[in-house]
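The authors assume throughout that readers already know how a fold can be written as discrete tokens. In essence, backbone conformation is discretised, so a fold becomes a row of integers matching the chain in length. A single example would do more here than another paragraph of explanation. For illustration, here is how one protein appears when written out as sequence plus structure tokens:

…
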Amino acid sequence: MKKNIEKQIDWNKQIVDTINAITLIADENNIPRDTVVDGLKDAIIKAYTKEYPETVLEVNIDIDNKRLSVNKLLKVVEANDNLDDYAEISLEDAQKKDSNLKLGDSYKEPISLKEFSKLSLGLYLSQMFKHNISSQSNKQVYMTWQPRIGEVIYAEVEKIDHKSGMVTVNLETTFGFLSRKETIPGEVLVAGQKYNFYIKDVKEQTKGWPIVLSRAHVGLVKYLLMLNIPEIQEKIIEIKDIARVAGFKTKFSVFSHQASVEAAGTVIGPQGSRIKNIQQQINSEHIEVIEYVDDFKKYIVNVCSPAEIIGFAIKEPTKPEERRQITLVARSDKLALLIGKFGNNVRLISDMLKANIEINTVEEAHDANLQYQRVEALSLRQQTFGKTYKKYHVGHDPLNQYNRTRPNAHKTTTAPTSSKTPQVRQQEFIKKPKDSVLQDFKNINREDLLKELMDVDASKNISDNIEDDSNDDFQE
């Protein structure tokens, strides 16, 4: 008798410990206690019915009073030779236990928790409970984090599995994971350090952590641009199109809603400081900024730069779900720059233009009898100087101030044009002391300087070409 009492006390203690464990699990995983209780009930029923499939169980758990009971529900039937002991009880036996029972009623037969101490049953119960808790925890995480898809979070790397490339990130209330394909190629993350992560997806049912993070997503760069460039936050400058091949290049176009603010120059910053700051946060990935224009044909040329194209042909889609087909025509010696390493540049162009891209050489276009629109554009060198000249030639050109009409200008004579080559003049200029440099600038013949910089024939009027609006159509 004493041993039975001791065993009963021991089982009661285990029940109390189980109830306490339920409470702790609920609090640690931020899951409602009723949800954890339901998970344990379901685990007990599935574990028992796995051994005795025909059994119907009733499980009661009272957290407040630390009570747990399991009952087998037996249907009261007439006595017969084929009585199922796991699901039925005879009327005679049932009324011995409860005289009020009648045919068709259910008799609750208590099940001792000792039965769950069997190795197979206890192991399965443990597995089922863990699975239920994991499932409930994932649902809770899904409800909390699913609305945050598309956000960027600054979080600490918890651990790195170098074999699989999986990175676990501590999100304080839960964990997220970063697969190898969502990392920036060549970037080495360090456990214990914090980084920016883009929340790409939240899975409702998964064996691992449900929050999928990314550092390769284009949304991360867009977030960093907004964070580092106030004009974008204030919507003075708008990012029109953006594309990214992580580890290779990010390319995007910008448009200014204020005439006084130059979009590309503002984004780049003094000496590229703003872009450099962003590059430091994405493993020094190359970033290209281009000007957006409403004219789609001109925009194609801008998107393809710095690669030069001879022309292009556009085929409009016949169905709403289809994309444009654009064939770019380029010289054979320009294909490598246009296509890019592993075709990455073409991918960027395709994403920016939202079109399928095909590339032909001039010879291939001729053989295919392709009708394409030619691009009459200045060379990249001319574009660069021409744009700078147009921007600063009024009131901001350091050379312009020395060509203005000055007092006693009639006393100043223009120095004769030098017959020396530009290379020789450059070396002499470098060797001269500082006090003679300013005088040299004063004596420069502006027309000659422009001709040398633009590298064109001396008989051609440079200033007219630069300020001619018709030649400015395809400039960056």
User: Anything to note?
Assistant: The longest strand covers residues 67-77. The chain has a mean pLDDT of 77. The first helix runs from residue 2 to 28. The chain is about 40% helix and 20% strand.
